[in-house]
Amino acid sequence: MIDFHLDVRSGVSPYQQLVQQVQRALRLGLLSVGDQLPTVKEVVAKLAINPNTVLKAYRELEHLGLVTPRPGLGTFVTHSLADDSLAAHEPLRRELLGWLDKAQRAGLDADSIEALFLTTFRKATEVTP
Fold first, then answer.
1. What is the per-residue pLDDT for 67?
2. CA distance 59 to 49
């Protein structure tokens, strides 16, 4: 089951953070078709947020065709975003963990690591005309 968290410093609305976390979990194969999302009540209790925020996120996921509510039962995954690259994830994750360890040993804090990664990622994925 997915374990939601919120980053109040991100500038991204809480409902959108929940949507993005489900999409990432689907892309990484952490959630599969048939899996149940936490109930609204469980998410509210864990994150101390308004139930309408969770409902809005779940409605957005439903609109995207990723989940469907089943009255009295909960909300269930109906579509996966994982693709054929899923097999490559684990070796790449191990390499990334090694890189993160090197960055921490070099004295970079979490914000610096994130900035370095995001800047490098954006530069590497830029499309040049």
1. 98
2. 16
> Are 42 and 64 members of one domain?
yes
Instruction: Judge whether 80 and 26 are in contact, CB under 8 Å.
Output: yes
| Beta bridge partner(s), residue 12 | none
| Rg for the chain, CA atoms, rounded | 17
SS3 of 38-70: the string is CCHHHHHHHHCCCHHHHHHHHHHHHHCCCEEEE
Are 56 and 22 in contact by the 8 Å Cβ rule? The answer is no
Q: Are residues 117 and 98 in the same domain?
A: yes
Expressed as residue numbers, the domain containing 57 is: 14-77
What pLDDT, in 10s, does the model give residues 91-111? 888 999 999 999 999 999 999
In a domain, 3, yes or no: no
Statement to judge: residues 33 and 61 lie in one domain:
yes
